[in-house]
Amino acid sequence: MLTYDLEKRGKISLYEYLYQCIRDDILSGKIKAGEKLPSKRALAKNHGISVITVENAYAQLIVEGYVYTQEKKGYFAGKVNRQYIEPEIKTKKRPEEKKKQWLVDFNSNHIMYDSFPFATWSRVMRQTLLDQENSFLTSPAPNGVKELREAIANHLQHFRGMDVNPDNIIVGAGTEYLYSMIVQLLGHNKMIAVEDPGYKKIGKVYESNGVKCVHVKIDKEGLNINDLAGCNVSAIHISPSHHFPTGRVMPIGRRHQLLSWASKNKCYIIEDDYDSEFRFSGKPIPTMAGIDGRSVIYMNTFSKTLAPSIRIAYMILPDQLIETFHKKLGFYSGTVSSFEQYTLANFIKKGYFERHINRMRNYYRDYRNRIIHAIRQSPIYSKVTIEEENAGLHFILGIKGDVDDEKFIKTLKDNNINISGVSDYCYNNLEEFRHKFIINYSAVEEEKLTRALDIMNQALEK
Amino acid sequence: MLTYDLEKRGKISLYEYLYQCIRDDILSGKIKAGEKLPSKRALAKNHGISVITVENAYAQLIVEGYVYTQEKKGYFAGKVNRQYIEPEIKTKKRPEEKKKQWLVDFNSNHIMYDSFPFATWSRVMRQTLLDQENSFLTSPAPNGVKELREAIANHLQHFRGMDVNPDNIIVGAGTEYLYSMIVQLLGHNKMIAVEDPGYKKIGKVYESNGVKCVHVKIDKEGLNINDLAGCNVSAIHISPSHHFPTGRVMPIGRRHQLLSWASKNKCYIIEDDYDSEFRFSGKPIPTMAGIDGRSVIYMNTFSKTLAPSIRIAYMILPDQLIETFHKKLGFYSGTVSSFEQYTLANFIKKGYFERHINRMRNYYRDYRNRIIHAIRQSPIYSKVTIEEENAGLHFILGIKGDVDDEKFIKTLKDNNINISGVSDYCYNNLEEFRHKFIINYSAVEEEKLTRALDIMNQALEK
Fold it and tell me: What ipTM is given for this predicted complex?
């Protein structure tokens, strides 16, 4: 008869302890597969416990498959196939990555602490919580909540002069997620052209999702159709309104050329409009999607304009792809919580988003002007050029004369200044992008900048 | 000299109207490529407007590439390559899908309106907003916010007896997103085994991400290794604790067999623990990941336990895959907003999550008992069997004797009752799963159920 010392059970319940004892004996082989177990009544009597306790332990053992019953015969130990199990190797804790404290970090596009409209956002959130209680109860549609898609279409109408059907908008948890959707729409084992230099992550996401990327060199006007000949690409991913990192704007002639090429070659243009909101003079540049919505997939994100923690991006698909989306990918659940979608929809509808963007645009314009002013005042100014397009959260600092880019970057790093060259964003070795460095200014503290510029100036004098 | 009737400009500004006029003339070819434009001064004088207005219009035209300048020569119309543009076809609005109002919908797993703890959640949200203001300012890490991963590990320790390293947890916007991550980890053009019958969406997501699925028939104990022979799969996706839709629990012997097979064949087991929280008697079934964390990818979601609108799921990767994740996919941004991650972390830490689950478990147990009681009281009871495993938000209604499943479902649909057969979840034609129907009871209104059961009974009598 099985006998266990129930006093040893510590804080766990009788039934659970009994379950554990029998389970362990079956696992260790002490109770062999096929061996008959005592009846509930007998086991209960043997331990001076209630039959119901044994019943509960047996029930759990049966559910988990340690024990099976045979009608009118009783309980038997099951076969557990235990032989192979090796001792578990204890997992190592990953060392925590310490964030380096830079004097100045030209690689960071961390936004300013007080730039996010907390008070307004949380007010809209609370109101949304009251109005849209039941938004919690339904799974968000694969293309996003209707109210948000309408708010986005409306915003694009006013802000970008675009005539967008809300039904063509797909909302997703970040642009990277949407890139993977595009791959699923176009099909795997295809080719997508990306810009060289360009934001490397884009190519990485595409490749990680199973497509090949062709890195096409850009010229002064952006990606050139001559370099696409024979490439057989299914899509071309570009940022025509503000190329990263060069900041170049694609002129209307080149845009028309590309649209024409795309339409002839049955290829889509993915128009990544990542920071179009931050043009500091004149109007925002009209989008390519606005010229020809049939071959352009337009993309934008709220992570740049609102806060990086907000993972809401959207794309506008041409009619044909929208059909494909509903047919091929309509089974997906949405990736952004409905509650956040309603909150953002209200934030846009009530005009807070536009107000926020205007405020941020002014803020960044002033801030950029002050940073550029500081460079002009610094002794380094005679050795550099500033290339900027009155737009975006970064500009290019060119070094006149010869400098070893890698050594320059290393020297600055040793002096707690973090900076990247445009060549770091080149896939091929492109001579013309040497001696150019990227100034992401949004996280730069002005008072530290002067010191950093002095260090940079000294590094150039060596 | 260019002359435009500026009175016609309506509400838009002078500079913008002038910009539009010149742009349209260049686009239409009225102003030819290479043609010299009037000087700013001359054009201003001609229209009786300020030079600054013309300057702004010219600046915008230059940025967009309609106009270029030649030093000391002036302004010229650019080449716009306009010829190809065809008139845009107006997009059709997609017809809105009307949701059918069912008498009883056995396919819906919509949760009960009052089951989501709004008040508590919104209190935690507000507190998180106060404490974690700066959580808005950083992009969430690719594997999720540390506080949330720690809270999950802690919860799994207490609730499932699992010893999980928070560093092995990956948080993502829903399980479907995490499936696509698994594909990227394992590589494309691989094979994954899924259960037949099974939740069809799982296979769809995998296939949409470029892997092939082998649909492996389950027996009484679940997926059988004999059916995997020669399959060369990289992973096996199963729900051992509560198979969908049959509800079957994989016994310990089969679990060990599968783990052993996986380890020998260098294959991963994806343990989809989608509703393990809802076992109505005894303890939750121990996980396979808890037995051998080296070959199991454990997955779970908060969409089932909290609310479908909350798009937060997680997986626990074995050490080896965690290394691969950071190496291959570490460049990704997280997909769940940091703010929601902190909110959920606090919700778990403060014990609200466990309390909520306990409440829901009791609620569902009672509700399921009442539904089963109603079936037992109905005249249909003599014609059916109820297969349930004391777990989950659905059970199986088997029809004794012969019935044409498709016709039965159609008759019910015509009578406003929505129901699916287990065979609807079969990939192959599996005889043994005929005459079995899935009762998702969570959205069934009791008072309507009696009527629905009468209709079902009549349908069986025909």
Answer: 0.89
